[in-house]
């Protein structure tokens, strides 16, 4: 599929897809006319890349991680190194801390909403 179709099907801009290629996160073949041609599995790869970015993982770390991640095309082509496992454990711990912070923020908002709703219902 061409870059425009991949962008449409994943919701990711063509510019971002080109960036992913430049970072070694995504690959494409070239048509005789020089256009990028992506395999169907690129959709899942782009979605996975987006998930990693959303988790706050950097491009270099994603590049290390992707070969170790099972995709729809079969499985990991490399085994994760002990260093990568350690690094990813640190990332997971960071995400857990962020989740805890977000839960606390939500609790504060819930209290404010409950208080505001209670004040509005008694006529004060």
From TrEMBL:
SUPFAM superfamilies: Putative DNA-binding domain. The keyword DNA-binding applies. It comes from the Bacteria. Gene3D superfamilies: 1.10.1660.10. Keywords: DNA-binding. Pfam families: MerR_1. CDD domains: HTH_MerR-like_sg3. Residues 1-68 form the HTH merR-type domain. Coiled coil: none annotated. One of its GO terms (molecular function) is DNA binding. This is MerR family transcriptional regulator. It comes from Streptomyces sp. gb1(2016).
């Amino acid at each position: 599929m061409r870059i425009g179709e991949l962008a449409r099907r994943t919701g990711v801009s063509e510019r971002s897809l080109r960036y992913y290629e430049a970072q070694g996160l995504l690959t494409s073949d070239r048509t005789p006319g020089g256009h990028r041609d992506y395999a169907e599995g690129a959709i899942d790869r782009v979605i996975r890349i987006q998930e990693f970015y959303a988790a706050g993982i950097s491009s270099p770390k994603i590049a290390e991680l992707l070969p170790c991640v099972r995709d729809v095309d079969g499985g990991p082509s490399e085994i994760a190194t002990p260093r990568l496992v350690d690094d990813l454990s640190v990332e997971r711990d960071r995400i857990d801390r962020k989740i805890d912070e977000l839960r606390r923020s939500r609790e504060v908002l819930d209290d404010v909403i409950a208080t505001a709703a209670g004040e509005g219902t008694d006529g004060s």
